[in-house]
Amino acid sequence: MTYRLWWTVGYVCTSEKEFLAAKHRLLPAAYEMLDDALRRANQVGQAGGVAWLIEGDDKTRLSRAAIERTIEKRGSELVVQPATGNAGR
Questions:
Q1: Would 88 be classed as within a structural domain?
Q2: I want to staple 18 with a disulfide (CB 3.0 to 4.6 A). Which of 6, 13, 32, 39 is the partner?
């Protein structure tokens, strides 16, 4: 399964209308799991960007508003945990 996340940072797109007009020129990030796409969308938002759309091969389609609602509900589950272990020791 593949989930594609379209996102922008800065002033590339400031409205949904601008995003839809530019979508064909933007390269989506691809993830094997929906949670990974949501996790990245959360990081994008924290960095000041906008996660516009997540589309999956399984017909999943999350708009900006749906992404934001999902992150609001599941935010603590989607936090990237630092790697632990004794690598390099």
A1: no
A2: 13
What is the C-alpha to C-alpha distance for residues 14 and 18, in angstroms, rounded to an integer?
A: 7
| Domain membership of residue 22 as a residue range | 3-77
Mean pLDDT of 77-89: 65
Q: pTM for the complete prediction?
A: 0.83
> Are 1 and 54 within 8 A, CB to CB?
no
Q: Is residue 82 a part of any domain in this protein?
A: no
Tokens of 68: 């934001």
Q: How confident is the model over 37-64, as pLDDT tens digits?
A: 999 999 999 999 999 999 999 999 999 9
Structure tokens at 37: 């796409």
Q: Which amino acid is at 78?
A: L
Q: Rounded distance, CA 85 to CA 89, Å? A: 9
Q: Is residue 66 part of a domain?
A: yes
Cβ atoms of residues 59 and 20 within 8 Å: no
